[in-house]
Amino acid sequence: MPNTTQTSAIPPAGGQGDENRRRLTPDECAQLLSRPLVGVFSTLAERGWIHSVPVHFLYRDGEIRVLCGSNSIKARNVDRTGRATFCVEVTQGTERRYVTVEGPARVQRPAQANDVTALDEQYARTDTADWTESDYAGEGLVILQPTRWIAWSDWD
């Protein structure tokens, strides 16, 4: 479970005294990451620019899991740097909640059927239901282990 109160995990930020802003609790972070939302997954490209893409994700065992092609830009960047960042946000009425995490990442090759099935179930998809072993061979699963957390709720 994330510790969103550690100063090493979340640096002091302006607005901490703002009555319209508060840190999310670890349970609130887990709840947000367990929803079928679109997140933004970022890595550092070889030439130094940030590669950010919208992704479906699975939050399992305290890790962020993202399906990708075995030789995709995401996979190659993670192989090279061993790190990634992920952000998810939701706004309901006037309240916005978001979680941004950063940490070590690796690519599991091939993607495991249980992770892909869980990802499909989370997003009510069935496009991988008939995958065979050869379909999984070309896919990887980026696994991000969050070590830094930024998690806030704010409202107008």
Descriptive account of the structure:
The protein is of the alpha+beta class and 156 residues long. It has a single domain (21-155), classed as Roll (Pnp Oxidase, Chain A). Helix content is 21%, strand content 40%. The chain has 4 helices and 9 strands. It has helices at 26-33, 73-81, 113-122, 133-137; strands spanning 21-23, 39-44, 50-55, 58-60, 63-69, 83-92, 95-108, 139-144, 148-155. Strands 1, 2, 3, 4, 5, 6, 7, 8 and 9 form a 9-stranded antiparallel β-sheet that branches. β2 (39-44) and β3 (50-55) form a beta hairpin.
How do the helices and strands line up, and which of them pair or pack?
Blueprint: E1 21-23, H1 26-33, E2 39-44, E3 50-55, E4 58-60, E5 63-69, H2 73-81, E6 83-92, E7 95-108, H3 113-122, H4 133-137, E8 139-144, E9 148-155
Return the average pLDDT rounded to an integer. 88
For the secondary structure, the number of strands is: 9
Rg measurement, Å: 16 Å
Helix content: 10-25%
Tell me the CATH topology: Pnp Oxidase, Chain A
Largest sheet geometry = 9 strands, antiparallel
Q: Per DSSP, what share of the residues sits in E-state strands of 2 or more residues?
A: 35-45%
Number of domains: 1
Q: Give the CATH class.
A: Mainly Beta
Low-confidence stretches: 4-15
Give the topology string: H per helix, E per strand: EHEEEEHEEHHEE
Distance between the termini: 29 Å
Structural class: alpha+beta
CATH superfamily grouping: Electron Transport, Fmn-binding Protein, Chain A
The helix tally amounts to 4
> What's the CATH architecture?
Roll
What is the overall shape?
globular
